[in-house]
Structures are given as C-alpha cells and as structure tokens.
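Sequence in, structure out. Go.
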Amino acid sequence: MRATVVGAGVAGLTTALTLAERGARVALVERSASLGANASWLAGGMLAPYCEGESAAPRVVELGRGAIDWWDARVPGVVRAGTLVVAPSRDVGEIERFAQRTREHERADEARIAALEPDLAGRFHKGLFFAGEGHLDPRAAMRALADALRRHGADMRFSADGEALGPEAGVVIDCRGFAARPHLPQLRGVRGEMIRVRTREVSLTRTVRLLHPRIPLYVVPRANSEFMIGATMIESAEKGAVSVRSALELLSAAYALHPAFGEAEILEMSADVRPAYPDNEPRIEEREGCIFVNGFYRHGFLLAPAFADRAATLAFTRAGETWDEFARPSARQEEPHLGRWLVENLAGIGEIELPPRDDGRPDPLAGLFDDEEEA
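Output:
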C-alpha cells in the first residue's frame, strides 16, 4: 500500500512510522523547510495519563496508558521516573482536589517528597506521586522518529504543499494540526507558551507539577541542566511571541517551586497554537477523500501512538489491503501451498499417512478441497 502523510508534527510522524512498520510505502509531506516548525516542537513531552485525568475525559486516560511503552520502544531517553505533584502550603487544598479527580497515585509527605526530589526538601509538606508516568524530550523524540522513517525507506519531503496531491499519493492522512482548519471547521486554536531555562542550582529527576488555583505549572527536566517550564492554555489562535503576563506568571511560579530558578539562564521563550475540538479530544475523520487525524489539544505525545494505530488500520482498510504479514496478497502469491504440492507431485504412489499435528500450526491440507466428499 502507498500512503502519504501530511504534516510532520507528532501526529504525522507517529502515523507515518506506524504505516511504515506495517509495510506501507510512505511519503511524509511537510510545508516547513525542516523538522520542528510546529506546536509539537514546543511540547512538554509528559507521558502522564493519570495526571491528565484531573481535567481530561476518562478516554484520554485509557488511550494514553500505553504511550510510555510505545515511545520507550522507539526513541532514546524516555524517563520512567513518575510525576510528582506538589502545592504551596497556602494552596494545599489543591492536592486534595487533584487526588479526588485522579487515580494511580500515592500520598507523599514531606519526607517522601525529599526522598524523591532532594532539592525540594523542606519546601512542600504534601504531594502526590504517580509512579507509572514519565516524560521524554519532544525534540529528540521527533528526530528519532524521522530517522526511523528514513531507515524504513520513507520519502521525506519538506517545503512541500500537501494540499494538491495526485493519485500517486495513495491513501492520504492529514495530520496538519490547526493548519487543517479550512477542512475541519470545528477545530479551535488553543495557544500554548513555554520557557526553556538552564540552571545547575536545581536538580530534578522527574516532571514536577506545582498546583495553584490560577497558575498551574509543570517543570520538565531536560539534558544539560535544562528545564522546560509550561502551563498556559489560552483560547486564542494567535501565534506571536510569549506575552509579558505569561512570562511573569511562568517564571514566578517556577521561582515558587525553587528560588534558584530566579538565577536561571533563559534560553528560549516560544508560543504556538494547538488544535482542539469542542470536547478537547482527538478525532479521526474521513472527508474529502482524506483521513484526518487531528484535535490533540495538550495531549499530542500522550495520545498520538493510539491514534496512529487506528489511522493506520483505517488506511489499510480503505486501500483494500491487510497489514498482517501472513495475510498480505503478495505473501499468499509467493508462498507455495504445501498441501497442493503434495497432491500435484505425489499423485499415484498410494496412500500417504501424515503424522498428527500437535504443534498448534494450521493443517497444510486445509482449504485444498472444496468439500469432504472430494477429499
């Protein structure tokens, strides 16, 4: 099967690789000149389905549970150290609210918090630890997916328009995010902003979420003493630069997590628009001859593997093919039928008694004759 995936964000990369792993001939088309000019490049990379359950639908939690295994099998640097949720003393009630809305966590007192993150010792008295969660570096992960696609022989086309594809494109899967809004009018833009800093005065092993009634914050550790700080979800389709208000709120919250962030070096402040449907859940839609995979809101890296699997299965179905290695048409044509070979080559030499099959494998004579009488 030939397939063309439009868009090289996390949804497009995971869908393209899933198709390639199943034997499809894949082309990936991206309008930008290089990898990374999209909202996925600015993501936190948190693989935290249970924490997301605080505000997301149960389906998001269930579909996201397998994400960490999918990523860990394909990209380097996946950290499976859990998520720590804390709150300042004045907002400790937020811990109880978060606990009531989530599951798969354990209570963490001051000693447990200090054991998990020594640099936070004495700063927080109550928290929650989600041991089954993790995180990755989105930029490293996206590069790894692109490399894997090249190893599978995928045709990677940058600075290419995915709007006017000919019949040679095969099945088209559109994963362009908010850029696909002309075709998906229900999409809305949700602006996200992030700040990347470097400091050697703070050391964190895992993602830390700081709860606050107005400014919830997450800090995700990266390599080389870097940290990604994010939280904003602004109902706007305007890209632009990070606003002064958002910068102040993010940096102030980071300072509340640990005062050493006040001396951190700011490496980057960026913003982009994430696509979302009214219910904030992704969808796969068929329209205009394409398969659209879109609406990941803030759950791109968490839900992309599950939706890539569904989109790939739908693509093979639309093409009238199956990706099962034992059932592909080409495989059936190339592999000889053992039962037929026996009949055609050993006819006339008398009866042949074959030993019983007790190894669980299929009978090689199955399907050779039309009915029992002929057999």
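Check: The CA atoms of residues 55 and 192 lie 17 Å apart. The longest strand covers residues 265-276.
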